[in-house]
Design brief:
Layout (H helix, E strand, L loop, with lengths): L2 E9 L4 E9 L8 E10 L1 H8 L15 E9 L9 E5 L14 E4 L5 E2 L6 H23 L9 E4 L4 H12 L4 E5 L5 H7 L1 E6 L15 E6 L3 H9 L1 E9 L13 H6 L2 E4 L7 H14 L2 H6 L1 E5 L3 H9 L6 E5 L2
Parallel strand pairs: 8-9, 8-11, 9-10, 11-12, 12-13, 14-15
Antiparallel strand pairs: 1-2, 3-4, 3-6, 3-15, 4-5, 5-7
The structure holds NADPH dihydro-nicotinamide-adenine-dinucleotide phosphate.
NADPH dihydro-nicotinamide-adenine-dinucleotide phosphate binds next to helix 1, helix 2 and helix 3.
C-alpha cells in the first residue's frame, strides 16, 4: 500500500486546517470497493466543509468531497469489478466517510452506481449532487401531479448549481421558469439556460405576508428562510414547492396560511440518504432529459489544488453554475 494525494481537513485548537497532502492508503476507511477518482465536484456542502462554516464534517482527519466519478481499482462486492466506471453521491462521503477530493476512495459497494448510460464520468460530476438534487425536486413536483400547463415554476438561488440545473430541467419539461437571483448581471446566463423571466432576489427577502399574490404553481427553493416563506405565500392554489436548500438560512419565518387556505404543499428533498432505486430513476432521467450543451455552458473545471479557494467562493455566493474538480 502506498500514499495518494488528497485535500485533508485536520482539527486544530482554534478550528480546522485544510491542506493538500499525501494520505496513507492504509488509513482509508472500511469498504469493499476501492475507486480511482477521476472527477469530483464542488457543492455548497463542500464549501461548508472546506471553510468550517457549518459542522458538516463529523470525524477528523477528513477528506472532503461528497461526489465522485471514477474507475474501480479493487472490489469484493459482487456488483462491481475491476475497471467498472462508477459514480457516488452523498451517503456521508466527505462528512462521516473519507471523501472524494483524493486520488483514491474506499467505499461500500452499495453506495455506488454504475455510470449512467449516455453520460461521461465528467458529465456526471458536472451534474453532481446539485444536479441530481434538482432532478429529485422535479420528480417530487411531478409526483405531486403538477405539470407545466398549471402555471409557472420559480427557481430560487437561480445562478447557483442546483438552480442552474433546475432551470434547464424545468424549461426542457415545458415549464415557464421564473428565476430568482441576487445577481441580476447573470440574467442572460439564466435566460440561456431556459428562464423565461428573471426576478430580483430582493422581491422575496422581506418579511412574508401570510398570503401574497398568486404567482407560480411549483418551485425549487435552494435558499430557505424569508425567500422560501415568500415563495410559499405566492404559490397558486394546489401548488407545491420542493425545498432543498438553506443558502439564505435554515429558518422558515412564514405562516401556515398557504397550506391551510390554498392547499399548498412543501416537498422536502434530501439527496444524501435517498434510496438506491430512486437514485437510479433520477440518474436515468438526467441522462435522458438534461440538455448536455446547457450543462457544458454552466460548468467550469478546476484542479484539486484550486478546491480550497473555490470552497470559499461558493460560500460567498460567487460561484456560477457548476464546478467540476478534475483529479485523475
Ligand atoms: P450554490 O452556492 O451553487 O447556489 C446557492 C445559490 O443561492 C447562490 O448561487 C445564490 O444564487 C443564492 N444565495 C447564496 N447566498 C444567499 C443568501 N445569503 N441569501 C439568498 N440567496 C443566496 O449552492 P448549491 O446549488 O450547490 O446548493 C444550493 C443549496 O441547496 C445549498 O443550501 C445546499 O446545501 C442545498 N443542497 C441540498 C441538498 C439536499 O440534499 N437537500 C443537495 C444539494 C444542495 P443567486 O446569486 O442566483 O441568488
Amino acid at each position: 500500500m502506498g500514499t495518494f494525494k488528497a485535500i485533508v481537513i485536520d482539527k486544530t485548537e482554534t478550528g480546522q486546517q485544510v491542506r493538500s497532502r499525501d494520505f496513507d492508503e492504509a488509513d482509508l476507511m472500511e469498504g469493499d470497493v476501492t475507486v480511482r477518482v477521476a472527477y469530483s465536484t464542488l457543492n455548497y456542502k463542500d464549501g461548508l466543509a472546506l471553510t468550517g462554516k457549518a459542522p458538516v464534517v463529523r470525524r477528523f482527519p477528513m477528506i472532503p468531497g461528497v461526489d465522485l466519478a471514477g474507475t474501480v481499482e479493487h472490489s469484493s462486492h459482487p456488483d462491481f469489478k475491476l475497471g467498472d466506471s462508477v459514480i457516488l453521491n452523498g451517503w456521508g462521503l466527505g462528512e462521516t466517510h473519507l471523501g472524494a477530493y483524493a486520488e483514491k476512495v474506499r467505499v461500500r459497494g452499495e453506495w455506488l452506481l454504475h455510470l449512467p448510460k449516455g453520460l461521461t464520468l465528467q458529465q456526471t460530476m458536472a451534474i453532481g449532487t446539485a444536479g441530481y438534487t434538482a432532478m429529485l425536486c422535479l420528480i417530487a413536483i411531478e409526483r405531486h401531479g403538477l405539470r407545466c400547463h398549471r402555471g409557472p415554476a420559480i427557481v430560487t438561488g437561480a445562478a447557483g448549481g442546483v438552480g442552474s440545473v433546475a432551470i434547464s430541467l424545468l424549461a426542457r419539461a415545458g415549464w415557464h421558469v421564473i428565476a430568482s437571483t441576487g445577481r441580476p448581471q447573470e440574467a442572460d446566463y439564466l435566460k440561456h439556460l431556459g428562464a423565461a423571466e428573471v426576478i430580483e432576489r430582493s422581491e422575496l427577502t422581506g418579511p412574508a405576508r401570510p398570503l401574497g399574490k398568486e404567482r407560480w404553481c411549483a418551485g425549487v427553493d435552494t435558499v430557505g428562510s424569508h425567500v422560501l416563506a415568500n415563495v410559499l405565500s405566492m404559490t397558486k392554489y394546489g401548488g407545491a414547492i420542493a425545498a432543498c436548500g438553506l443558502a439564505g438560512g435554515m429558518d422558515l419565518p412564514g405562516s401556515v396560511a398557504p397550506f391551510i387556505l390554498r392547499g399548498v404543499s412543501l416537498l422536502g428533498i434530501d439527496s444524501v440518504m435517498t434510496p438506491r432505486n430512486f437514485r437510479l430513476e433520477a440518474w436515468s432521467r438526467l441522462a435522458h432529459d438534461l440538455d448536455l450543451v446547457k450543462l457544458e455552458a454552466m460548468t467550469t473545471t478546476i484542479t484539486l489544488d484550486q478546491v480550497v479557494d473555490a470552497g470559499q467562493a461558493i460560500m460567498e455566493g460567487k460561484v456560477r453554475g457548476r464546478i467540476v474538480v478534475q483529479i485523475g
